[in-house]
Input
Amino acid sequence: MILEKRDIKKAQQIINNDKSIDFLELKINEDCLRLLALYQPVASDLRFITTAMSIVTDLERIADLASDIASRVIEMGNEPLIKPLIDIPKMVNIAKDMLHKSLRAYVKRDTRLAKEVSLMRQKTDDLRDLIYNELEEVMTKNPQRLSRGLPLILITHHLDRIISHTENIAEDVVYMVDAQVIKHRNIKN
Output
């Protein structure tokens, strides 16, 4: 993870790649619109194409948030960390797993896997709250550490937003496959 290693070079690459991802989003949406116009798909094919458009938007936003995280890493430079990184890397690993599973669910049209992604959300919510509480405690006890704690709070917030977009992808897969809207409610197997 670029934060753990404070890899400024890799962080800058992530920021630089954001424009390419923006372009790809526009290209994919344009291709989807062309398919809609030329072939006038119905039912499951229509849901497949509109889901692709929704997913590509979420992926572009995930890239924006990754760029925001990279900016925070650059901002932090080589300053000592306010506390050891334990829970943020755990949150990152769960987020990566959720993203991989949600994209696999889309490709395989697997609603079981998509629902599994949504069920993972509670773990990340618990980690987010733990991180916020620990950072708040450290910064309250020693206000001089505020400038080193705020970037970690922002990184945690950006990770939480990435997880939300990943969950959106999983919810879109369930809609695509089952024509069932599950957004904004808890998923039960």
The chain has a mean pLDDT of 93. Residues 90 and 127 are 8 Å apart (CA to CA). The domain at 2-178 is CATH 1.20.58.220 (Methane Monooxygenase Hydroxylase; Chain G, domain 1). The chain has one domain: 2-178.
